Amino acid sequence: MDMARPNRLNISLEERMPAKQKPKKLVPNKLLRRFIESKPCVICKKDQRSGVMAAHHLKTRGAGGVDENNLIPLHWFGCHTYAHTKGVDSLSEELGVDLREYAIQLTKEFNSL
User: What are phi and psi of 53, to 5 degrees?
Assistant: First the structure.
């Protein structure tokens, strides 16, 4: 046996195969979400007293959206579904409000607390 060559069986699995890096998991900011959900709905203006509120992502988590500067308050029943059917740009135009800018303002307000 040639001693200059290492035995393939003595090489660990880690040495033979490069380690795969796990993708970063998006960690939701629960306190920010609760803060957003405490605000009135941007469409119907209802608040938590009139039903379940949702912190709606303008850019979905599946598309790489995070919580910061990306959440708006929506009433869960009706308004949330309506927002999905309209899309961000159409809804912003309809409401006369830049929803992306509003999401940024809400995050700034939360961070100043």
Answer: -105, 150
Residue 109: predicted pLDDT? 96
Give SS3 for 93: helix
CA–CA separation, 59 and 16 (whole Å): 40
> What pTM, to 2 d.p., does this model score?
0.72
Residue found by looking up tokens 């007293």 in the block: 49
Could you write out the DSSP letters of every residue in 15-60? Answer: HHSPPPPPPPPPPP-HHHHHHHHTSPPTTT---GGGS-EEEEESS-
Tell me how far the alpha carbon of residue 70 is from its chain's centroid: 7
Residue 96 near residue 71 (C-beta atoms within 8 A)? no
End-to-end Cα separation, the chain, in angstroms: 71
Digit-coded pLDDT (tens) for 61-111: 778 788 899 999 999 888 999 999 999 999 999 999 999 999 999 999 999
